[in-house]
């Protein structure tokens, strides 16, 4: 049986989980590939620290070039994260004819076009299933399982930390800051949680998913990104009363005008399956023009869940080693010379429904003034909640609009907020029916 030697860059949670799963499932991997996959060398910043895996038969080093330059290593697993030195190391491995597997979503979103081109030029594979949604095989599903379809749209809960926070806010009525602290104590959120709670991590993943869906080059800078730090328990409660749940959603949609790529808090009807994805779990809905909507659900992080995706890429590469890489599945699912530069719509040009919460003075005529402004801007109201003031506080008016151009809504809100009966800036959350 052929032996395929693997080298690791990074031996933390995912790296350790990868070593464990390769050893635990060695027979299954061999049955699927006809190869014995062995981790022979790994790089870590501190080789003396305790590990979640047994490394007795793995050569450890603190120099990543020891892994890259080892002539016996055929597949390099980049599990260290960050832009540099990860990018340079991957390019070096590719230039030496080594296949690479990465879990680095930021690197793919920002530099994937360059990296995929380098891999193609050197007739090797750069695989990245683990970069999106942890253990969910969403890349393979979109690139291969749905390849007969024209993808119309996709929407995903693709950051477990944000989903945990919103779930706890709903279940416990807690404020954002309190739940964030809890998430940090449980290890779900970093000490600096910006990438998770402000949507940057999800935007990296959405950028890749959009390119897979629509066959276009990666363009992370065009993703509209909005976080969840301004969501209040009040809005979570009112959304529930209206039959919705608030989720931090990544949405990509293609129309005749161009492509939407946006990450933001979103009201979703509580009857949708994705609205009931709670805690740290991830889920992605993909709408194909032949199959209709399909849902992919599972753990978005974790040692062995993510290792499952990493090793699935290793299995694919082992299967491909007997043929030219140019005959394998293209990196983004479309032939490289068929990728299309598509217009990316600015957020002002998207059309969606909205949840609006207005804090108003409790006096006659307020509702009439608000509805007049909305009507003058061509905005129809789908539902209304009115909450009487308590203990001298402001009254609350909650509106659900029909679909409207965002620029029209912003114009209307500017007028509404100038009314003397409005006490605070409006709370605005987009609504998606996902049909």
Count every helix, treating DSSP H or I runs of 4 or more residues as helices.
14
Computed structural class: alpha/beta
Strand content: 15-25%
Rg: 24 Å
Note the quaternary state here: single chain
- Per CATH, the class of the largest domain reads Alpha Beta
- Judging from the principal axes of the Cα atoms, what is the shape? elongated
CATH homologous superfamily annotation of the largest domain: NAD(P)-binding Rossmann-like Domain
The tally of strands reads 17
CATH architecture heading of the largest domain: 3-Layer(aba) Sandwich
CATH domain topology of the largest domain: Rossmann fold
* Domain module count: 3
End-to-end CA span: 49 Å
- Low-confidence runs: none
Mean of pLDDT: 92
Largest sheet: 11 strands, mixed
> What is the helix fraction of residues, given as a range?
25-40%
Please give a handful of descriptors for the protein shown.
about 425 residues, alpha/beta, Rossmann fold, Dihydrodipicolinate Reductase, domain 2, Alpha-Beta Plaits, 3 domains, 6-stranded parallel beta sheet, about 35% helix, elongated
């Amino acid at each position: 049986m052929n032996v395929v030697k693997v080298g690791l860059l990074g031996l933390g949670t995912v790296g350790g989980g990868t070593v464990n799963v390769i050893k635990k499932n060695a027979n299954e991997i061999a049955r699927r590939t006809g190869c014995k996959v062995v981790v022979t060398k790994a790089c870590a910043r501190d080789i003396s620290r305790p590990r979640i895996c047994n490394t007795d038969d793995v050569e450890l080093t603190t120099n990543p070039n020891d892994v890259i330059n080892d002539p016996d290593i055929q597949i390099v697993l980049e599990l260290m994260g960050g832009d540099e030195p990860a990018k340079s190391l991957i390019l070096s491995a590719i230039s030496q004819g080594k296949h690479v597997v990465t879990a680095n979503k930021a690197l793919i979103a920002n530099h994937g076009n360059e990296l995929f081109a380098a891999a193609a030029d050197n007739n090797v594979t750069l695989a990245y299933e683990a970069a999106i949604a942890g253990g969910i095989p969403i890349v393979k599903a979109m690139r291969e399982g749905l390849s007969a379809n024209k993808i119309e749209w996709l929407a995903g809960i693709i950051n477990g930390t944000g989903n945990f926070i919103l779930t706890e806010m709903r279940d416990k009525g807690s404020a954002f800051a309190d739940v964030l602290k809890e998430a940090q104590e449980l290890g779900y959120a970093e000490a600096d949680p910006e990438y998770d709670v402000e949507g940057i991590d999800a935007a990296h993943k959405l950028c890749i998913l959009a390119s897979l869906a629509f066959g276009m080059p990666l363009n992370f800078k065009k993703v509209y990104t909005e976080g969840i730090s301004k969501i209040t328990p009040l809005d979570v409660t009112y959304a529930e009363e209206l039959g919705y749940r608030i989720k931090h959603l990544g949405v990509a949609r293609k129309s005749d005008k161009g492509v939407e790529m946006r990450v933001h808090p979103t009201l979703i009807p509580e009857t949708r399956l994705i609205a009931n994805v709670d805690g740290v779990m991830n889920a992605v809905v993909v709408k194909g023009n032949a199959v209709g909507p399909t849902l992919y659900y599972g753990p978005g992080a974790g040692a062995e869940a993510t290792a499952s995706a990493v090793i699935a890429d290793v299995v694919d590469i082992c299967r491909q080693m007997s043929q030219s890489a140019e005959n394998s599945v293209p990196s983004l699912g479309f032939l490289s010379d068929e990728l299309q530069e598509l217009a990316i719509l600015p957020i002002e040009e998207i059309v969606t429904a909205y949840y609006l919460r207005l804090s108003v003075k409790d006096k006659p005529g307020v509702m009439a003034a608000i509805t007049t402004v909305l009507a003058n801007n061509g905005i129809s109201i789908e539902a209304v909640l009115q909450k009487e003031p308590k203990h001298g506080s402001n009254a609350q008016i909650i509106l659900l609009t029909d679909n409207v151009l965002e620029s029209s809504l912003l114009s209307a809100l500017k007028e509404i907020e100038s009314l003397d009966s409005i006490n605070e800036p409006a709370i605005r959350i987009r609504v998606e029916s996902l049909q």
